[in-house]
Amino acid sequence: MGVGRESRAASTATFVRRSYVFIDGAFAMTTATLNPPARADIQLAPSLALWLALLAFTAVCLALRDALPWLVTYPKDWVLPAATWINVAADAFVALFRPVFRAISAGLDMPMRAIQVVLQWLPWPVVMVAMAAISLRASGPKLAVFALITLVYVLGTGYWRHSMNTLALVLLAVPVSVTIGFALGVIAHRLPRARGGINACLDLMQTVPAFAYLIPLLLLFGFGPVVGLIASAIYAVPPMVRNTMLGLEMVPEPLKEAGLTSGCTKRQLFWLVEVPQALPQILVGINQTTMAAFSMVIVAAIIGGFEDVGWEVLSSMRKAQFGQSLLSGGVIALLAILIDRITLGFAQEHSPGRGWISLRGLAGGLAGCLLAALALRQFMPELSNPVPGSLWLPQLNAVNQVLLNFVRDHADTLEGIKDTAFYCLMLPLKVGIVGSATPAIWGFTLGPVLTAAYALLIAALTALATSRASWAAGVAVIVGGIILFFGFTGFPWPAMIALAGGLAWCAGGRPVAIFAVLSLLFILLTGLWPFLMQSAYLCALAVALCLLIGGGLGIWASQNDRVSAVLRPINDTLQTMPQFVFLIPALMFFKVGDFTALIAVMLYAIVPPIRYVEHGLRNVRADVVEAARQMGSTPSQLLWQVKLPMALPVIMLGLNQTINAGLSMLAIAAMVGTRDLGQQVYVALGKADTGLGLIAGLAIALVAMMSDRIIQAWSKQQAA
Amino acid sequence: MKQYDAAVTTKGTNGMTGQLRDLGKAAVALALIAAGATAASAADLGAKDDAIKLAMLEWSGQHISTHIAGQLLQKLGYKVEYVTAGNFPQFTGLSDGTISASVEVWMNNVGDVYPKALEAKQIEDIGKLNLETHEGWVYPKYLEAMCPGLPDWSALDKPECQKALASPDTAPKARFLDYPADWGSRAATILADNNMNLTAVPSGSEGALVAEWESAIAAKKPLVMMFWAPHIALAGVDVGWIKMPPCKTPEAAHCITPPDVDKIVWSGFGKKWPAATVLLQKLSMDAAEQLKIMQRVDKKGEDIDAVTKEWLEKNEAVWKPWVDAAKG
User: Fold this and answer.
1) Using CB atoms and an 8 Å cut-off, which of residues 23-62 of chain A contact chain B?
2) B11 and B128 inside one domain
C-alpha cells in the first residue's frame, strides 16, 4: 500500500500506470512479508537446452547476416500496408458515424462552455477564498496556505484565464471518467469473463500515447476542446476501473452474507453494503483519475481551441523561451499538486482537515463566496478580473539570458559531455562495437586480436557469473555481450524475436512468450522494426542509467532523511512539470540528437527508481534487519545482502514503472529529433495520418505491455 | 510550425501543386466575381452579431496578421473572436465553420487535409496575403570566417568547413539541421543532386530549431539549418542565406522556392459576412512591418492587442483603402 501512497503524491504527468502501482504494491507488500525472495533461477528453471538452442540460432543468424541481408533489414516488400488499410477503414467509419459523434460533441461542448463561463465570471479573490476553504477541509491549514500561494502565483503569471479554462476541462473530464470508470469496474467485477478483455483495453488506453489517437478523435468529434476532453477521458478512465474492481474485490464475504441474511435486495446489497465498503479504494481511484485527466489536458492542447495553459506551454516551447515555459509549466505543476492533495485529502478517512471546518461550515463558506462574487461583480468589477500579462517579464527574459550565457561560457564542456556519452555509451549500443570501431569514430579498427580479446572477456565474465550466481546469469552476460558487439540496429530480427520470446518464456511461461512473439511480429510486419530498435536502444540505455543513478539516489535517500527531504520536491517537480519545459535547456546544451532525447527520457524515468528503491529499503522488515545486525553484519553487508534482496520485489515494480515512463516519453522526445517509434507517432500527427499513428502508438503500447508482463511474471515467480 | 509537404506526396507532386495553384486561382476568381455581384450592397455587413472566429495558429507572425485583421473587422462593426488552433487541426475547424477564417496560411505546410477540404468545397482560398517570405539554408554570419566562400553552397564542401560543421553523429560528414521529420524534407534529394557531403539531421520541432539556433549564436558555434523568414529568431541577428546550386529540376522536391501565404475562409463565410469578405480579400501584410511588431511582442513582452492597435493608428494609409472597399 505504501508504494501506492508514495507515488500517488503528486504526479500530473504520470503516464505511468498508477493503479498498477497500487494493485501490485498491495501484492508486493503481502508477498514480501510472507516470503523472503529467493534467487531467480531456482523456481521454474528453464531448461538450459532451450537457451543453448537460442544462442545457437542467434549465432547462425549472425553468421549469415552478410549473406542474407534480409535477416537484419526486413525487406520493404514484405511490409503489410496496415496503415493504409486502417486509413480506408477509418475514413469509412468516420463518414458513417460522424453525425453520432458530432452530436456527442455538441452535448459535451455545452456543459464545458458553461463551466468555463462560470469560472471566468468568478472574481479571482473569491476563487482564492473558496479554494482555501476546500483545502482546509481536505487536509488542514498547511494545504490552505499552499492553495493561496498557488493561486497568487497563477494570478501573477497572467495565466489566470488560461488556468480557469484548463480547470473547466478537468472539471468536466473527471465526472465523465469517474462515471464510466465506475460502471466498467462494476461490470468487470460482476462478469469475470469480461475481465480479461476489459483489462487488455485498460492496458491499451494507458500505454498508447495520446498523440496517436488525437487525429481520429479530431475527425470524429470536430475541432474544439471536446477532443481534449475525450482524450483525457480515455487516459483517465482506467485507474477508476482498476480501483473500483479492487475495492469491490476487497469487500469481506461475511459482510455480504450478513447483508443478504438481513434481507437486502441485490440493489440494496450493492449500494448499501458493497459500495460503502469499497469507498476508500474508489476515492483513491477518483484521485488518480483526476491526476490522469489533468496530465492529458496538456497533451491535448496541441489541437488548440481553448486558450488553456497547455497551449501556452507548447507556445513557449515552440519559441524556445525557457523562462516563459517554466512560468506556464509551473502553473500546471502547482495546480496539479494542489488538486492531488485536495482529492487525496478527501479520500483519507482521518484527514487532519476534518477538525478545522465541518462540511456544513464549508458549504456555508462556499455559499458566502457566491454572494461575495455577486457583490464584487456588481460593485467592484475592477477587482474581479485578473490583470492580463505577466508581472515577471523582465525576470523571464533574465532567465532566458542566464541560460544562453551558460551555454556561451560552457559550450566546450557541454560538447565534451555529449561527445563522450555519445562515443562511449550510445554509439556502441546503437551500431555495436563492430560499427563503432572505425577510424572515423573510435579511431581504430577491430582487428582479429581485439575481437578475440573481447570474446575472451565475455567468456571470462560468463564463467564468473555462472560460478558466482547461476547459469542464467551467465546466459544473460553472453546475450548482453553479443548485443553490445553487434548493436541494436545491426542485430538480426529473427534472433531478437527468439531471444525476447525465450526471456518471456522463462519469466511467465507460454502465454507471456506467445504475447511477446506476436507483439514483435506485429511490429515487424507493419514495417516499424527499425524504429523499434531505435526505441529499444534509447529506452534500454535510459532505463539502465536511471536504475543506476536513481537507484543510487534511492539508497542514499533511504539512509539519510535530509537527502530524502531534498529529493521529494525534485521528484514531484519532474513528474508534474510538463516535460516540454525540460526539452528547451536540454536542446540548448546538447543540440538536436539522441543524447538530448536520452536526457529528456531520463528526466522523467528517473523518478520511479528513486522512489521505489527508497521505499523498498525503508520498509524492509525491522526484525530481519535487527537479526542481521546482531549477527555482526557491516552496514554494506546489511545493504547488499539483506536489505536489497528483501526489497527486490518492490524494486522490480520500480523497474516496471521506469520502463513504462521511458516508453511514455518517446512521443515527447520526438520533439528533439529522434528516429524511433515516438517520432513515427509524431510524424503521423503532423501528417494527420490516422493509420500510421495508431500502428506506431500500438507498437509502443505492445512493448510496454510486453515488458510489464515479463517483469510481473518474473516477480510473481520470485515470490512464489 | 512551417512544413514542407510536397516532397512527401511522391511523384505527382508537381502536377498536384500546379493543380492546387489553379484551384486557388479559380477560387480567387470566383470570390472576386462574388464580391462584384454583391458590390451594390457591399456595405452589407451580414450577420454582424455572430462573432467572426479567426484562427490563432502556432507562430507569432500569424498572431500579428490575425490581430490586425481582427481589429479592422471590428472597425467595420463586426464581433471578433480569436480561437487558438493547431496548424492541421484548423482545417477541420474551418471545414465546418467552427473557425471562420485563417488569414496567414503557409501553403508549403497544409498537409493532406487541406486539398481534401478544398476539393469538397468546405473551405475557400480568398487570395494571397502578399507576405514576402523566404525559405532556405540559413547560417549566422560569423560562419563565413570558418567557411570561406560562403554564401555560395560550394563552400560547405570544403574541408575546413566540413570539419567545423561535423558532429559525432554525422562525422566525418558535416551536419545540416533539417526541418522536423513530419514536415517532409527536401534535403535528401538536394544533397544527392549536388553530391554534397552533408548529413541532414531532422530537428523534431520548431522549438528545437530555434533552441539550437540561439545556443549556437550565444556560443558562436557553427550551424547551418533549414529555416524560413520572417521569423522572430532571425530578428536582430546577422544572418546569411546559402546561395543554393541551380535546381536539377524545377520540381518542388529538388527546389526551394519562397512559399505562398494565403488567406483561407470557411465556405459559408462570403454569404454570411459579405463586407468582411471584401476586407479580408484586400488584406495584405508586409514582412518587415510584421517582424517589427513581432519583436515588440515576443522580445519586449508588449501586449499584442495594444501594439497592433498602435500600428494601425500610425499606418492608416495602408488599410484605409481596404476598409473603404469593404464599406463600398
Assistant:
1) none
2) yes
Q: Which of A224, A389, A671 sits opposite B208 (nearest CB)?
A: A671
- The two beta strands, B123-128 and B198-202, are unpaired
> CB contacts < 8 Å between A and B, how many?
167
Task: Residue B122: count other Cβ atoms within 10 Å of its Cβ.
Answer: 17
Q: What chain B residue is nearest to A673 in terms of C-alpha separation? A: B204
Backbone phi, psi, residue B301, to 5°: 75, 25
What is the chain B residue with the closest CA to A431? B169
User: Would you call A36 helix, strand, or coil by DSSP?
Assistant: coil
Q: Which helix (H) or strand (E) holds B138?
A: strand B134-140
Find residues 671-690 of chain A whose CB sits inside 8 Å of chain B: 671-675, 679, 682-689
Cell of B176: 545540416
A97: part of which helix (H) or strand (E)?
Answer: helix A82-121
Domain boundaries, chain A: 2-50+529-719, 84-123+158-349
Q: For the domain that residue B167 is a member of, what is the CATH number?
A: 3.40.190.100
- What whole-number distance in Å separates Cα of residue A170 and Cα of residue A719? 40
Instruction: Name the A residues in 553-582 with CB < 8 Å from any B CB.
Output: 580
> Domain A84-123+158-349 sits in which CATH superfamily?
MetI-like (1.10.3720.10)
Which of B226, B254, B282 is the last residue in one of the domains?
B254
Pick the CATH number of A2-50+529-719 from 3.90.220.20, 2.60.40.4070, 3.10.20.30, 1.10.3720.10: 1.10.3720.10
pLDDT tens, residue order, chain B (328 aa)? 444 443 333 333 344 444 444 544 555 545 544 444 444 445 588 888 999 999 998 888 999 999 999 999 999 999 999 999 988 889 989 998 999 999 999 988 787 788 888 999 999 999 999 999 999 999 999 999 999 998 999 999 999 999 999 988 887 889 999 998 877 778 888 898 888 989 999 998 899 999 999 999 999 999 999 999 899 899 889 999 999 988 888 777 788 888 899 999 999 999 999 999 999 999 999 999 999 999 888 888 788 999 999 999 999 999 999 999 988 7
Range of the domain at B250: 134-254
